[in-house]
From TrEMBL:
Residues 21-91 form the HTH gntR-type domain. It comes from the Bacteria. This is GntR family transcriptional regulator. The gene is pdhR. It comes from Amycolatopsis deserti. The lineage of its organism: Bacteria, Bacillati, Actinomycetota, Actinomycetes, Pseudonocardiales. It holds the Pfam family FCD.
Amino acid sequence: MRRPLTSPSARSVLFAPLDQTGRAELVARRLVDAITLGVLADQEQLPSEAELAEQFGVSTVTVREALVALRQQGLVQTKRGRGGGSFVCAPPEENDETWRARLREVSLSELRDIGDDYVAIAGAAARLAAERSSTEDIARVQMAAEDLDGAVGTAAARAERQFHLEVAAASQSPRLTHQEIRLQSEQGALLWLPLGHHDPVTACTEHRAIAAAIAQADGELARKLTEQHILDTIDRLGEVHLDLLGS
């Protein structure tokens, strides 16, 4: 039976209070993750320094230091005066040649290891999402599943990443959600490569099936479907990898 818990979205988990206060680099890391994963949109205005400090459980001085680091990385622009504030500057999308070069550098054993890690995290998150998610969670997951409909290239890759983030957030497990965020930051761009070999129609169907299993509170089915979805992705990447080495 589904438990009526308050649901943490991917955004709320990213902005949850830090375990260690006074650490500007931790605040900066959270904000970098939120920007690079697309949780914060390009040109979106960030909350005020005071609001960020309250959300993260740190001082405004710490937030200010973190924003300085983000400005130096070109991920945030601060405007003064009326209508001012800090605004997101999302990094430019990498092109297909960049992705191909990255995939060439990864061995098949590394791909399998990445897949094993992702299967363990995403599968567990999907099972817990089915058991714990609220009506609001289910709606977010279903909306994220539909975002892949008709998407191609980088838009499809972004929709893939957002879907799995929403499933992780629906698991009600901050630790699992942070593990999903870690994997997305480290390997997400590689896993969901927009190389044209990705089939968004099939992926959208799979996302809808996972979302339906979560809505039906069928944890085992949600886990199995998620694991198979990721394993199929790893197999496809392995084939692309071998094609690239042979070209």
